[in-house]
Each structure stands twice: as structure tokens, then as C-alpha cells.
Amino acid sequence: MPYSEPTDLAVIACPGGESFANAVIKHLKNMYKHRFTLKNDAILKRYSIDKDELIKKINFNNDISTSSLVVRGAVDKFRPPVFKVDTTFTYFANGEFKTEINESIRGKDVFIFQDVENHEILSLNGGKNKISLSVNDHVMCLLVTIDAIRQAGAGKITLVVPAYPYSRQHKKKGREGLTASMLGHIYEMLGVSRIITLDIHSREIVNAFSSINLENLHASYQIIRELGGIVDLTGQKEEMVVVSPDTGAIDRNKFYASGLKLPLAMIYKERDYSVVTQNAKDTNIKSVKLLGDVQGKIAFLADDMLGTGGTLLKAMSFLKENGATKVIAAVSLPFFTGNAIELFDEGYKQGLFYRIIGTNAVYHEELLNREWYISTDVSGLFANIITRIHHNQSIGDLLDNRTLIEKIIKRQQELRSTEQGELFHD
User: Fold this and answer.
1) Which residue of 72, 93, 243, 289 has the lowest C-beta tally within 10 Å?
2) What is the value of pTM for the model shown?
3) 366 burial class (0-12, 13-18, 19+ CB within 10 angstroms)?
4) pLDDT tens digits, one per residue of 282-327
């Protein structure tokens, strides 16, 4: 189980996923060095071996086990792994993609990063072209890359797609396709063994796979960590309530309410299904009701993704009308499509909400300079998952964040008690 070079763990970043891949690789490098040190310390203590001699032996064993005839790097120092694979992506004038792997990945455990919701201007063809890609462009680039990796003889292929493409097309209501499932079958056909994603829109998508393992990560710990920086989670300063923006988000918000030990409210929309809506402006909603109490309290809402944001803005406005002192929302995947940022700028000026917490799993540079937006980093979570999967270790404690959330609340309670003790002493 080597934690130094040479390594069989390889990362390939598609153009859309390069920013997130670089953030994860930074964590991987730190983690591998830390684990290398811990492993050395444990062996030194157990076998009473000289430290310098042990490092030489570890490097010797790594060099012996590799199939490469050329051995690189120092023999008496930690050799940091090089995870990122040199890859060339070509974008042709007719919209086609080509992926070329510029080094051997035969037999390696390859993790492909792609952010299908990255609509920033990307530098392609060696900087000759500056283009904003659509979801379909990103998906096609991903498929072409999977095929190139398969043809290059990779041992295992894992997709790291924080925003699973077409995840909202997961159930059939009429004459329509199950596109989320269709993509899953294509991934399987191309030899993908695992997918790592973040807060997938529907658990039903997991049932579409027959051989792929899907690891659905949650950003609840990272979100609550940021939330604890702007509000008092102990409830000693201001009361707080978790609000589900609709019936579909009830399970997610129930998790936050139980983890934070807070009451749970819900916004219920009564619809008249005899009314057929003709466009986005029309609605069949007869009335909106609040099940619970937000009067004089901070309202916290959580959802998996934010697109145009119209529904969330209406929910925030409704909560303010019902007496909420502050409205804070958290979204794992902050797409902010269309003119969503401008709408939220206006909503913030009107006092409809206080802050929105989103993750860096979706790259959106314009959001980062907004006063009302807080970006939380989930790259460390992905790095942890990737390391454990690669080394065949359990990931159960990383999928369930309850213990970590309890530690955040306990830390705030201890801090609050210390502050009160100092005030009393003064």
C-alpha cells in the first residue's frame, strides 16, 4: 500500500473539471505525505528501525514492485506521488472532441473529473480557443475521454462527476426518456466501474446500474461548518428552525433538523391539477401554506441544486412575510443558470435572504465576489473518498456525517460556555 511515488492512482481532468480536480489533487498530496509519515512512525515504533533506513527500504520495495525499468526520484526521501496524467483535449470547429493520453496508464486506477455544469469560458486547443461549453459538450467530452482511457488499458475507471448529468430526468411520466438511466448504461458499456457524485437528485438513479457502484456524497458537514460561522447553532442567541422548501426536499431537511436538534417546518403548495399551465409564468398553485412557525426565528433551508432559483426566491419571500428574522439557504450544487445571479442580487437588496451557502463542486467564478454567497470546500471530502477507495478501505464514516456534525455543535456549546464564564468572571 504505497503512499509515495510510484503510484497506481491516476487523475485525468476534463477541461470542465480541471479546477475541481486541481483542488482535490492538492488535498491528495497532503494526505499522502501525512499517511506516509504516520505509517513510518508506526513501523519505527513497532520494529525499532532507523528512520532513514526505513525510508530507503520503503522506496526500495516500491521500486521493486513497479514494472518500470527506469527508477526515478531520491532513494532516501519521501517521493510525493504525481497523480495528474498529461492529457491533450482537442476541440474541433464542428464541435467534436478528441482526448489523447500522453503517458502510460496501463493497469492504473484512473479517476476522471468532469464538471458538466461549468459554463465559464474555458481555454481549449492550447489557449487558441476560448469557449463556454454546454452540458452536452461536457458529457460528450467525458464519453470520449472514457473511451480513450479504456483503449489505453486502464485497470479501473472511476467517474468523479459532482453534478450527475441529466439527473432530473430520472422517472417516466409519459412518452419520455429515462436519460439519467441511459447515460448509466453507456458508462457501464464503456467499462466504468464506479461513479462518485454529490447529493444526487434522486436515489432512483442508483437502480439504473447493474455493475457500477455509485458513491453519493453529502456536503452536510461542510455546510453546517459554514453555517456555524454566521449563526449561533446552540440557539442561545437566536432561535432557529429548519424549513423544507417543498415536499420533495423533506428528507434532506429532516436530516439537518435531527442533526442540529432543531424544529422542522415545511412550505406546502396546494395545487389545482385541473389547471394546465402553458408557460413558466403560469402556475397551478392555489395557495401556499407554512406548516410550522418561523416568527422571530432564523429560517434555514437546504436543497440539492439551484437552477434559475425562482422557486427558492419565492420561498424566501414567503418566510420573511411569515416573520423570519433571517433566511439562510444551502445548496450542494449551485448552478445559478440564466440570470439567476442578477435575481438573487435583487432579492438580497430587498432583504429576502441573508446568505446562501454553496459548494465549490460546481465552478462559478461570478458567485465568489457576491457578499451574500458563501463557498464551502468539498474537495477534501472527495480526496478522502478517492484515497480510501483506491486503497480498498471503508468509506462508511465519510458517507454519514452525523458524528462530525455533533462535534461542530459541541464545539460551539463549549465556546459559548467559555464566553459566558469570562463575562461572569469580569
Assistant:
1) 93
2) 0.90
3) exposed
4) 555 677 889 999 999 999 999 999 988 888 998 999 999 999 999 9
